[in-house]
Structure formats: structure tokens, C-alpha cells
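Give me the fold.
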Amino acid sequence: MTATTPIHPAPDAPAGRQALALAGVFQAASLVDELARTGQVDQRAWDTLVHATLDTHPESFESIYGGHPNNLRQGLDTLEGVLGRRQANPVVMRYGFSLLMLMNKLRGNNAMMDDLGQRLTRVQGQAEHFGETHENIIASLGEVYQQTLSTLKTRIVVQGDPSLLQSRMMPERVRACLLAGVRFALLWHQQGGRRWKLIFQRNALKKALDTL
């Protein structure tokens, strides 16, 4: 993330903020799918997810995703598919909705929420030394996911190229992505997002996407 990225104020309307947070969820879902199938992802999309995971006490809503909605462009485009505007990848949709379910399970587990917060604080200290996207940080974020969220009953099974999924640093990168997805799912919930609203307030979300 660069400091030169212009701050683009987030929408005041709840639907706009929910759309941005959901875009983060589906950006994570999309990157998990790309990592599992090709091993490659867009660097800006990746950096945005890692930054958001590490920024647990953001200065503003906008700062979570680096100040500009284009940092979530891949997620916004994916969300358009989820809301029925274009063809959606069913695997990415499954990952996205699984991340929302995982977030709900996490919210009901105060001990895990506290543990997650403490672990991320330690990783933030590492990131100040190595830089946010250093592989040591990605490995640490993957470990945080593995030791917390992956122990819940709602498990996310990632499909893809078996040889890629077993390659060096790939499990850690996938888990770091899933952790970022849950981070954005929590943000979505904090902004008033609920599963039923995806059905009954779809038009409000579509209108919000138009402005983004």
C-alpha cells in the first residue's frame, strides 16, 4: 500500500459501506480461487487484503482498504456477479458465503476473538520490522488462521491444483487470504450487514455498487 493513494471518502449510506466490506470478502474469495488454480494473483488486490488484516485499529473506514475503492476492484466486480448482474463463479461464491458463516461462528466465540486479537497484535509488531507483505508475515497470518478459525466446525475446503496447493508458501498464502475474508466479513457485520439483507436489500447494494 502506498501513502500516495488518494483518500476517496467512503459512502455515508450504510449500503455503500456494506458493499465495500462485502467486496473485501469476495476479493478474498476470488484470490483464494486464483491461488489454488494458478498460483498467481493481482498484487494490488493481495496487498489490500494483507493491509486490512493487519490494520486492526484503523484511523477511518477508508484506511482499512487503503483509501480508494479501486483497491477492492476485483471484489467489487465479483460482488456484481454474486448479486446477479453477471455470471458468477460458483466456487468463489461458495468461498465468500462460507467466510460469512465463519465470521458468524467467530462472533459467538469471545475467547477466540480475544486470542485472534492478541495474535494479530504480535504479527503487527513483526510487520513493522519486515514490511506487511514479507513472507514471514504471510506465514504468521497463515498460522493465525490455522490455530484459530480453522479449528471451528465451519471448515472451508479449498479446491484447486493439488501440486500448487502443496507448493512452498501456498498453504500460508491461502490461509492469509481466508483470514482477510473473515476480517472484511466482520467489518460488513459492523456496518449492519446481515445474510438476509443480501436477499431483501439486493437492489440497495446494486445501487451502491453503481456509485463505486
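The radius of gyration is 16 Å.
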